[in-house]
Amino acid sequence: MNKMDTPPATLARPKPASVAARLAEIGQKFSPDVVEDTRQLYEPLLAKANWSGTDFTSDISFGPDPKRHLLDVHAPEGGG
Predict the structure, then answer these.
(1) Over 60: is that where the pLDDT of 75 sits?
(2) Helices 17-26 and 32-48, axial angle in degrees (round to 10)
(3) What span, in angstroms and rounded, lies between the C-alpha atoms of 58 and 54?
(4) pLDDT (tens digit per residue) in 31-52
(5) Averaged over 55-80, what is the pLDDT?
(6) Are 7 and 53 in contact, with CB atoms under 8 Å apart?
(7) Which whole number is the average pLDDT over 7-32?
(8) More confident residue, 80 or 39
(9) Which of 15, 58, 66, 78 could pair with 19 in a Cys bridge, judged by C-beta atoms 3.0 to 4.6 Å apart?
(10) CB-based burial label for 31 (10 Å; 0-12, 13-18, 19+)
């Protein structure tokens, strides 16, 4: 399990207008550039979040390709 220093409650808040506007510009396309743009939009927000009280389990294999089909689970501490 990995603990991050940042709360899920913060993620539930409405996204800033600047992020919403950029996501609208990006639209419904998907590409490596879109992934990078989206990461850059959300990374500062995630860095400010408070993840205390959250358990993290990373790289859970769930499909036929154990190296590619991986899942990260974020759950309330203690299994809530």
Answers:
(1) yes
(2) 170
(3) 13
(4) 999 999 999 999 999 888 888 8
(5) 90
(6) yes
(7) 82
(8) 39
(9) 15
(10) exposed
Written as one string, the DSSP assignment of 1-61 is: -------HHHHTSPPPHHHHHHHHHHTT---HHHHHHHHHHHHHHHHH---TTEEEEEEEE
Token pair recorded at residue 43: 């990374």
Q: Retrieve residue 52's tokens.
A: 């205390």
Residue 65, both tokens: 């390709």
Q: Which amino acid is at 49?
A: A
* pLDDT for res 41: 94
Residue 30 main-chain phi, psi, to 5 deg: -145, 125
